[in-house]
Structures are given as structure tokens and as C-alpha cells.
Amino acid sequence: MIPFLIGFLTCLSTFFRSRYSLGLEILALRQQLSVLKRRIPRPRLRTQDRIFWILLRRLWPAWSLVLVIVKPETVVAWHRAGFRLFWRRRSQSQTLGRPKVNAEVRSLIRRMLNENPLRGAPRIHGELLKLGFEVSERTVSRYLRHLSPPDNARQSWSAFLHNHREAIAAMDFFTVPSLTFRVLYCFFVIEHGRRRILHFNVTEHPTGSWIVQQLRQAFPESCPYRYAILDRDGKFGEEVTELLTASGMKPTRPTPASPWQNGVEELGSGAVAESFSIT
User: Fold this and answer.
1) Would you say residue 126 has pLDDT above 70?
2) Which is it for strands 168-177 and 183-191: parallel, antiparallel or unpaired?
3) Which of 88, 145, 168, 241 could form a disulfide with 257 if both were Cys (CB 3.0 to 4.6 A apart)?
4) pLDDT, position 154
5) What's the CA gap between 194 and 127, in Å, rounded?
6) Model pLDDT, residue 40
7) Quick check: 49 and 35 in contact, CB under 8 A?
8) DSSP codes, 112-168
């Protein structure tokens, strides 16, 4: 009796829906029916079937309610795979890559990092230039990613986060792919103490002036935070650090390729990015 009533109420609700919604639902159901009618032991989804559901996901909010043949997470995974394939093909290099870093330079970088674990790529790059080694800062930064910091560096940074968690605000960008494989940059500011989101906004072209405006909106009054954790992205340039300093915060940058040093922001932005992908 209960299934009958549920089915009757579902049919009755169709009289109160728009033609656009009903048309998309009929289209989705007919597409699944055509897949199931294929005369093979197990219906296989073709490329055009995947493209159909990716497009429908962007055009109709209730697409997951009529999806039967696969899970909604599968459609999200198809879109992500297409996004990776699109940008992998666009970013393929025609050359064979850069020459390897000299062994002597690698040894010096390891020695400098061990003697001063909090020293980042810009300072190590400057020391190498003084010694007469021609190497770019990006090369030093890439090599530092493969070197794990000593235990005392981990302990000192963990103590810093623990002792000043109520006075720390972190910020970073994460990306979300659009239907046409464009990249949307999402700016995210969160406090470490209560893990409360302070500010959030999206743009296609993040610039220093745009970040400054977002920080003014995130901290409109007297700022209660003393430290601002931001990564070494070029978007966080001089005008951003000047505004943070004028607001009473000390810009603090983690070491390269160390997401654990900004774990609160990484977890928060990851949760928001996941919610963007599912909806």
C-alpha cells in the first residue's frame, strides 16, 4: 500500500512542475532506456552517453534523481577525467625537458636546508648565486619538494600552530573546472582557532588588486589576527603582503611542497571544492 501511495503522489507532483523540468526528465529516462536496450550481456556506456550526462548535470539541478544506470559520483568522475585530459593535451611540451641539476648544486641545497630548516627557496637561491652557481629559483623550489624537512623543523612549526592557533588566519586558492573546461579560481580565507570561514569568492582572473579587495572585505574592521599563512604563489605579491602588514598581521609562508604546514586551510578548501563538484 505504501509503495502505491508514493507512486501516486509522485505522479501527482508532475502536474505542478514546469515543462522544462519534465522535458529534461523524459530525455534522461529515454537515454537510459536506449542504453539498456542494447543487445549485449552488459550494456556499455559510450563516449556520447558520458557527454550527455555531463551536459545534463550542468543544465538540470535534479539530474541525479532520475539517474539509474550509474551513480552520480561516476558522472562527476567523468567530468574530472575530461578536465584532466583537456589540460594535459594543452600543456604537453614539445621539448624533452630541462637538463638535470648538477650533483654539487643538489648537495649544497641539502646542506643549506639541514643547517637552516626554515630557509625557503628564495634565500637558498640567493646563496647559490653568491657562490657562482647559475640556477633558477624555480629549479631550487622543485628540488626542495623532494626533500623532507628535519624532525626539529616539523616540531617547531607544529608548536607555532598550536600556540598561536587563535591568532592565525590562512588563505589560499583552489580551482574548479567549468562545463567548458575553463578554470575558476576560488579564494578561501579561514581562521585556525574555530575553523570558521571568514571569506570566499570566485574569479576567472585572480590578480593582486583583486586579492587586496577580498582581504579588505574579509577584515573590514580592526583585525584580531596576528599571523596570515599564505603560500608562495606569485599571486600573493608585494601589494598583498603590504596590506596584511598594515592590518597588523605578519605574512607567514610555509616551506615549498609542505601542505601539512597549512593543514586547516587545505582541509577546508578541499571540503568546499568537493561540494562544488557534487552539486
Assistant:
1) yes
2) antiparallel
3) 145
4) 61
5) 40
6) 63
7) yes
8) HHHH-TT--HHHHHHHHHHTT----HHHHHHHHHTSPPPHHHHHHHHHHHHHTGGGE
Please tell me the predicted confidence (pLDDT) of residue 97: 60
Q: In sequence order, what are the residues at sequence separation of 6 or more whose Cβ sits closer than 8 angstroms to the Cβ of residue 70? A: 45, 53
Q: Model pTM?
A: 0.52
State the sign of the Cα–Cα–Cα–Cα dihedral 83, 85, 89, 92: positive
Mean pLDDT of 161-170: 86
* CB neighbour list of residue 137: distance below 8 Å, 6 or more residues apart: 121, 122, 125
- DSSP tally for the chain: helices H, then strands E: 11, 5
CB of 188 closer than 8 Å to CB of 272 = yes
What are the grid coordinates assigned to 217, written together? 572585505
Q: Which three cell numbers stand for residue 194?
A: 574555530
Strands ordered across the beta sheet of 197-203: 197-203, 183-191, 168-177, 227-229, 250-252
Backbone angles phi, psi at 185, to 5 degrees: -95, 120
Q: What is the mean pLDDT of residues 104-118?
A: 79
d(CA 105, CA 128): 8
